[in-house]
Automatic annotation (TrEMBL):
Residues 105-317 form the Heat-inducible transcription repressor HrcA C-terminal domain. InterPro entries: GAF-like_dom_sf (IPR029016), HrcA (IPR002571), HrcA_C (IPR021153), WH-like_DNA-bd_sf (IPR036388), WH_DNA-bd_sf (IPR036390), WHTH_HrcA_DNA-bd (IPR005104), WHTH_transcript_rep_HrcA_IDD (IPR023120). Negative regulator of class I heat shock genes (grpE-dnaK-dnaJ and groELS operons). Prevents heat-shock induction of these operons. It comes from the Bacteria. Keywords: Repressor, Stress response, Transcription, Transcription regulation. This is Heat-inducible transcription repressor HrcA. GO terms for biological process: negative regulation of DNA-templated transcription. Residues 7-71 form the Winged helix-turn-helix transcription repressor HrcA DNA-binding domain. Belongs to the HrcA family. GO terms for molecular function: DNA binding. The gene is hrcA.
Amino acid sequence: MDERKLKILAAVVDEYVRTGEPVGSKSISKLENINVSSATIRNDMAALEQLGYLEQPHTSAGRVPTFKGYRLYIDELMTPHDIPDEEKIRLDEMLGDRNTPEELLVQNAATALTEITQCAAVVTNAVPRFSVISKVEVIPTGKRLYVILLITSSGNIKNKACRLEIDLSHEQLDFFTHYIEENLSGVSVDELSEEMLDKMVAAVSAYMVSLSPLVKGICELSEDLRQQELTVSGSEKLLSCDELDKMEVVKFIEHKDGLSELLENAFSGIQVKFGAENDSFAIGNSSLIVSKYRKGGKEAGSLGIIGPMRVDYKKIIPYVEYLTQKISALMDSDEDDIINAPDEFQAP
């Protein structure tokens, strides 16, 4: 891969992203930074096709990038756009400030991304990872029927109805409430291991077997809290995109398991993943651009977009990076830590 072929590949990607049409050698030869003949460009495009970076949809058509071509373009060739200062101000206003609840902060960022990119936005919620249990209540609601109310420090509320074999006396209910508060109050959601909860079941059962359904109910609520909360907004953007298979989009909307797995395994920094190279991702001709946001120096969740493979990476990647940097800054407690996102893009 010499410099000229790399320059031609970058030009093909830029032109295809701009027009949506297969790119021919004549179009590339008219560009200012390409100073070779159409014949030379044709030869180089043919070589790029043999290497797997370009493909020809029809024999008489020009060429389009493959996901391998996009990958090389993103990693090594593209020059990301700078976000204008006035646009940064608008984004900051859309996000909110440090008094904005974290969940709303991330939701606002997703809304901004959908508006800017006209793609679907994907978000994982930071609440479960950094919450501690602040209160557990057991509320009698009927004959042998009790509702467990579990509240976290971030305001997340879970509840579950449990039916017992007997009605509990005030003394029994007080024992259970005291025991649960003593063992769970202030405990991080991340620390709620199966082993810890099993020990609690055994301890409560030793006092009174009839109480074990309540502990098991708390176990189930704890499991819910530990689950990654994944939301996709703007799904209609995917359905209206002619470049994506409608049935694959519907399948993706109904079952997001593949996306959850991709996000869970993503590394820090900007990540770009293509449906064509991930069997677990339902939408074939798609791309996922995502970045982690942080709280207190730890990864707290992910924010990004899902769209067709032919998106403007030079524009979108800086926006994803900027918004995740701002979310991270606003989530930190020290006001001095609120900084602007870096202007320079770090290649994944």
